[in-house]
TrEMBL record:
It comes from Vigna radiata var. radiata (Mung bean). Keywords: Golgi apparatus, GPI-anchor biosynthesis, Membrane, Transmembrane, Transmembrane helix. This is Post-GPI attachment to proteins factor 3. The chain crosses the membrane at residues 40-64, 76-99, 111-129, 141-160, 166-186, 198-214, 226-244. One of its GO terms (cellular component) is endoplasmic reticulum membrane. InterPro entries: Per1-like.
């Protein structure tokens, strides 16, 4: 608490002198609200969590209550289980993001980073399986196993060996770029009815990634590049789950035609 007061006092003095804010221990100084270290980032993380929950629930209702089911009560959509896992990992990631930005300590930072890496790793697996239309379980395991091993090893490295920010940024950016490229190529080659939504998410995601790499002092002590990235994620997430629902309808319709 004393350190925070000292930082804010020093920053107020620098502002009066016309100097720009500086980082302390590698982080920009933020204005707290009721003890919350980054109130805007926390609020936007909570909104993202709510949007992810809404998207996941709407997908669940669609595939189990609105679309036809197989005689064994399973869905015709072959990727239902994968999207359920994705939804759970996404909500978990945003939860720990909110916690970390509320109170940044070693434990919450590791949980935030680990959750984000787990989400990106699984998203990459899901991207490959969906875009290459992998439906055979054995093939899915062969593709997923090495990627899961890599992601698990990276998470263990961050938690038990070194919290390497530079390495983690490279790994996460790499997984994001690969996913965006795969989805972009697939959207260009596909006749999917909702590919315009996918294109919007891909372009928006790419721009958001560039924004995330642009570092600047928090405006008025509240809004920095990371918070703006949180903001861009909200409409993109809403559109993304809309695409997932359309994909479920598209694939279910195709499967029903084959059955008939």
């Amino acid at each position: 608490m004393e350190n925070q007061l000292m930082v804010h006092a020093r920053e107020e003095e620098r502002t009066k002198l016309g100097d720009k804010p500086v980082k302390y221990h590698g982080k920009w100084p933020f204005r707290r609200v009721y003890g919350i270290q980054e109130p805007v980032a926390v609020a936007l993380s909570a909104v993202n969590l709510a949007v992810q929950f809404h998207g996941w629930v709407s997908f669940f209702i669609l595939v189990y209550y609105k679309l036809p089911l197989r005689p064994d009560k399973k869905t015709y959509y072959e990727y239902t289980g994968l999207w359920h896992i994705y939804g759970i990992l996404s909500m978990n990631s945003w939860l720990w993001s909110a916690v970390f930005h509320s109170r940044a300590v070693e434990l919450t930072e590791k949980l935030d980073l680990s959750s984000a890496v787990a989400l990106l790793g699984f998203s990459l697996i899901l991207t490959i399986l969906r875009c290459f239309n992998v439906r055979d379980e054995a093939t899915r395991v062969m593709i997923s196993a090495p990627l899961l091993a890599f992601v698990t090893t990276h998470i263990m490295y961050l938690n038990f060996y070194e919290l390497a920010y530079g390495l983690n940024r490279i790994v996460c950016m790499g997984m994001v770029v690969v996913q965006l490229l795969i989805w972009a190529i697939w959207a260009g080659a596909s006749n999917h009815q909702a590919r315009w939504k996918l294109w919007t998410v891909v372009v928006g995601g790419g721009l958001a990634m560039v924004l995330e790499t642009y570092d600047f002092p928090p405006y008025m002590g509240y809004v920095d590049a990371h918070a703006l990235w949180h903001a861009t994620s909200i409409p993109l997430t809403f559109l993304w789950w809309s695409f997932v629902r359309d994909d479920a309808e598209f694939r279910t319709s195709a499967m029903l035609k084959k059955v008939k």
